[in-house]
Design a protein that fits this description.
single chain, binds s-citryldethia Coenzyme A, Citrate Synthase, domain 1, Rubrerythrin, domain 2, 48% helix, three-stranded antiparallel β-sheet, 17 helices
């Protein structure tokens, strides 16, 4: 992949040549691994300009607002595909034939049930435990049940683990919700689609039939699809780093869930709704815009800005269109939508946000849709985790499938010089 070099003159006067690697799309990268021999590290807190790996799964052009999964645009997939087909694409690299899709859907459907012992796991959680706390624990605990797929060197074992994770995440997520409201767990149903099954396990009860509205089922599937993968984001990088030690896939995904929970990342969708509730009315927006612009105020506009997108997040555009459709279809009037739309207009016309290229991201509208279909705010990031599991495990699989090294960044040490021990 290297067809030219970058020349670097070191403070010592030494001149070194660093290979410039060219991918199939997007910026070239400079391979700095040779710097160590010259006695230097690179320094890039937050990895703002660091490529940690090469990958064929997802491509993002932040300036153009482009998101491709295996070359297919997110707009195309949202329009023509569904979540499980996109899962197949992310894992296997190609869209499935009719037969392949049917086999894949059947495999996922037949893996949705959990070992019954896992249900008792939830007895240890208080009802008011945050569902993400329960998910971190429950998903990590899957590795206590599936020893038969722990040889990560086996592609077949990796595939079974992936199918199990994609299939069981909705069941675990619904159990977190049911536990938090003191209702009995609902077993998955093999006659329902992935999205409908999740909604059934969330809102169904043993006392009466529960039918999922097609509009809600479609909206749920689209939300799953839009959150499926996003290149080397913080939680995916966490899964890759955990996987580079040889940890099992369930433990790696549990680590990813922990990273996703933060309000700067996947926790933003929950934070957006809490922010809209705090703003309350359109009249209060200017006060919150001022807070967001105040460097001495830690408040940030949740759902705005992105490390990579310096344009509209293409997922936010699709999400906003879905928002209008779902609310109209369900006849839901959510005053927060009016506040969100006015907030977006005011922010986008304010130089502070324009200069910093802060646009709405995927989390800005997703919470309004999730609220409209009855999902409680505390479950928003859990749903993000359910959806992103295919992205996490596909990146893990991609890394493990080729020679890899344990991820172990270095540092710039700024601490004490060596000093002898003397009791104070
Ligand atoms: C996701 O990486 C991914 O791909 C993530 C994700 C995925 O699918 O995996 O897309 C999902 O995490 C989306 C992002 C969700 N988070 C939020 O909505 C939280 C609010 N956003 C910010 O926390 C922030 O924008 C980040 C964390 C998303 C990005 O932060 P960066 O890239 O580190 O940018 P920065 O903090 O250096 O900000 C640059 C400037 C700063 O001002 P100055 O110091 O230059 O004066 O922009 C300001 C920031 O203060 N800024 C904001 C802001 N975001 C950045 N000011 C007000 N409100 C904001 N939301």
């Amino acid at each position: 992949m290297a067809d030219q070099n970058a020349t670097l003159t070191l403070p010592t006067g030494e001149v070194i040549e660093l290979p410039v690697l060219r991918g199939s799309y997007g910026p070239d990268v400079i391979d700095v691994s040779g710097l160590l021999k010259a006695g230097f590290f690179t320094y890039d807190p937050g990895f703002m300009s660091t490529a940690a790996t090469d990958s064929t799964i997802t491509y993002i052009d932040g300036d153009e607002g482009v998101l491709l999964h295996r070359g297919y645009s997110i707009e195309d997939l949202a329009e023509n595909s569904n979540y499980l087909e996109t899962c197949y694409l992310l894992w296997y690299g190609e869209l499935p034939s009719k037969m392949q899709k049917q086999e894949f859907v059947t495999s996922i459907t037949r893996h949705t049930m959990l070992n019954e012992s896992l249900a008792h796991f939830f007895d240890g959680f208080h009802h008011n435990a945050h569902p993400m706390a329960m998910m971190c624990g429950a998903v990590g605990a899957l590795s206590a049940f599936y020893h038969d797929v722990m040889d990560i060197r086996s592609e077949h074992h990796r595939e079974i683990a992936a199918h199990r994770l994609v299939a069981k995440m909705p069941t675990l997520a619904a159990m977190c919700y049911k536990h938090s409201i003191g209702q009995p767990f609902m077993y998955p149903r093999n006659d329902l689609s992935y999205a409908a099954n999740f909604l059934y396990m969330m809102f169904g009860t043993p006392c009466e039939d529960y039918t999922v509205s097609p509009a809600v089922e479609e909206a749920m599937d689209r939300i799953f699809l839009l959150h499926a993968d996003h290149e080397q984001n913080a939680s995916t990088s966490t899964v890759r780093l955990a996987g580079s030690t040889g940890a099992n896939p369930f433990a790696c995904v549990s680590a990813g869930i922990g990273a996703l929970w933060g309000p700067a990342h996947g926790g933003a969708n929950e934070a957006v709704l809490r922010m809209l509730d705090e703003i309350g009315t359109v009249e209060n927006i200017p006060m919150f815009i001022d807070k967001a612009k105040n460097p001495d105020d830690p408040f940030k506009l949740m759902g705005f800005g992105h490390r990579v997108y310096k344009n509209f997040d293409p997922r936010a555009k699709v999400m906003k269109a879905s928002c209008d459709d779902v609310l109209a279809e369900l006849g839901v009037k959510d005053p927060r939508l009016a506040v969100a739309m006015e907030l977006e207009q005011i922010a986008l016309s304010d130089p502070y946000f324009a200069e910093r290229k802060l646009f709405p991201n995927v989390d800005f509208y997703s919470g309004i849709i999730l609220s409209a279909i009855g999902i409680p705010t505390s479950m928003f990031t859990v749903i993000f985790a359910v959806s992103r599991t295919i992205g996490w495990i596909s990146h893990w699989h991609e890394m493990i499938s080729s020679p890899y090294k344990i991820g172990r960044p270095r540092q710039l040490y700024t601490g004490e010089l060596p000093r002898p021990y003397r009791a104070k």
